[in-house]
Structure formats: C-alpha cells, structure tokens
User: Fold this.
Amino acid sequence: MQRADAVYVSAASLLEIALKMSAGKLRLKLASGQSLDTLVTDAGFEELAVRGVHATAVLGLPLVHGDPYDRLLVAQARVEGLTLVTADEVLHSFGVPVLDASI
Assistant:
C-alpha cells in the first residue's frame, strides 16, 4: 500500500463501520470535529463512492460469499481495476487482485 499511487476506501466500508459503531460492536475514537469520512482523507486515502455500475456488477459475481458489503467491495475492485485489501480468504476466490491484510 505504501508504494501505491492512491489508496481508496469505499463508502460501503464507511457505512459498514458506521453501522457497527451505532450497534456498539465497534469503538473508534475520533478527534474532536473528525468524522469517518474526514478520518479517511486525513489519513491520505481517497474515498471511493458507490455508483450504480458497482451495484449492478454484483450481479455477475459467483455466490461464494453472502456478505453484501464484501460483494460490493469485490464489484468495485473489479469495475475500477483495483486491488482489494482484505483478511477474508474467501474473497480471493472472486478473481480480483487481493492484498492479504491478515496479521
């Protein structure tokens, strides 16, 4: 990631984080006046909006993973020609480039 020209964070990921924070399943300390979207840009990442072409690209994906957020991330990576950063081994089976983020 350090050698990449740009690193994108999907708005779908921000939604999933926000939902988990709202449900009390994830705690994330934000600086005063900082939001999830500004956290992304403050870190030097670029936000990747979810567009209709991404949503419809989910239709062409095999049914190897049921999580709708992960399927959308795969579709975005496929449409935009990006590498997906994930620790989820199942996402390797979608045929998009993957950078393993497991610890």
Observations:
- The chain is about 35% helix and 10% strand.
- The beta strands are 8-10, 46-48, 84-86, 98-100.
- The mean pLDDT is 92.
